[in-house]
Amino acid sequence: xxxxxxxxxxxxxxxxxxxxxxxxxxxxxxxxxxxxxxxxxxxxxxxxxxxxxxxxxxxxxxxxxxxxxxxxxxxxxxxxxxxxxxxxxxxxxxxxxxxxxxxxxxxxxxxxxxxxxxxxxxxxxxxxxxxxxxxxxxxxxxxxxxxxxxxxxxxxxxxxxxxxxxxxxxxxxxxxxxxxxxxxxxxxxxxxxxxxxxxxxxxxxxxxxxxxxxxxxxxxxxxxxxxxxxxxxxxxxxxxxxxxxxxxxxxxxxxxxxxxxxxxxxxxxxxxxxxxxxxxxxxxxxxxxxxxxxxxxxxxxxxxxxxxxxxxxxxxxxxxxxxxxxxxxxxxxxxxxxxxxxxxxxxxxxxxxxxxxxxxxxxxxxxxxxxxxxxxxxxxxxxxxxxx
Amino acid sequence: xxxxxxxxxxxxxxxxxxxxxxxxxxxxxxxxxxxxxxxxxxxxxxxxxxxxxxxxxxxxxxxxxxxxxxxxxxxxxxxxxxxxxxxxxxxxxxxxxxxxxxxxxxxxxxxxxxxxxxxxxxxxxxxxxxxxxxxxxxxxxxxxxxxxxxxxxxxxxxxxxxxxx
Lengths: 388, 165
Hints:
The complex is a heterodimer. Chain A is built from 13 helices and twelve strands.
């Protein structure tokens, strides 16, 4: 092989700097992990049972590319209930393999080479690579602890150029748990309208909003026609392994996304689609039960961090605490590595989610209360050992 | 949280795990421990919380190896309706639960005993012969799968990745 066969834009994709750390965690035994970005709950029984029934009935065929109409109807009804946004199930909704696929479709459908896509950091690991894979230019806007990690509209405004096409939002945010308040949402909406931006709103954690009802940028004036609402069943309904997400938005964009989806994926597993239908029909009580439990854990973990001298904001959504660890004098990665090796507690270095995550670690409270309490004791011991 | 929300949350939490202390509950709800202690005391005083006990497999104990549910038809009394006879029955320690039911019979009793004979003896000598009891139908329990929201056998844990973004 005299030349590299790998396409340059893939070859140049940065490898995650914490890949090695993830490998290290996965090879260790007896680790208490606060590093897992998925619910610890097993999928509610009513959903699993309906998936089994779907197989028994012999539902084993392809579905419409967009997803079964009954699921699309259920999704649109659900969004109308929750956010008061009305989508037409026949043409404004597509069912995808998790939000990951929805994001991929959206970016590929919208971004031409050289288009700038603004997103906020720290953020989920796939945003920047997704944009690069579409030959776009990712533009990260840092969010700050002083703003509770919400996107500051002024920072956004500064990042907009004539090449900006897309704004990618993720609130409630992984890894910070931040949400946007009314005022911030309204201002960001204004900026999007003013500069004629398309907004991709990744709302996978929306159900897990702790104070007040979940909201969406799509419900602000002038926004519905320029917003793609992305969400799914993985987090709120504890269905990560089912891989069901969806995108709702303007028919023209959904149609473009459908083209890519039809050629690359065809359709989402029919069984998973049936399960997702059941989630919306009968799973809401289970979801609410899980949300309540996350809230209790959040209260416990946030208090524990603050009590031990690692300042930690009260996350308003998702299931991550993002305490500040720079007072230890260590980098996020060093802190995470030493904590793992010395106390067998796994947390994710903030830098996994962007450079501005330096000085923080992400601790998932999607783990049992017992696990959280033990982990907190061990972190406290770890901090004490540093002082000696 | 409003007082009513706190009250409900405390009941939910204790309903799942009755052994949690007021300070553990306070941490979970991010409220003052004093407030939790007072609310729990009030719930106990008002008989909303009527007791705390463990859920376990009762066949571990010799005195409760055998369980039965009994459907009972009774004649309501002119004054007091079903309450009087229900209260009378509920005093027997063998009766672990007692409900007034809609449908084909009136009272549903759960009975515990050491042996089949002991339970049968209670039914014939105490229950069926009681004034006002018209008929009984006894069903012995063969196996318990779930009680008070808890499965008797834990589900196997699915393998989860140890760390994911």
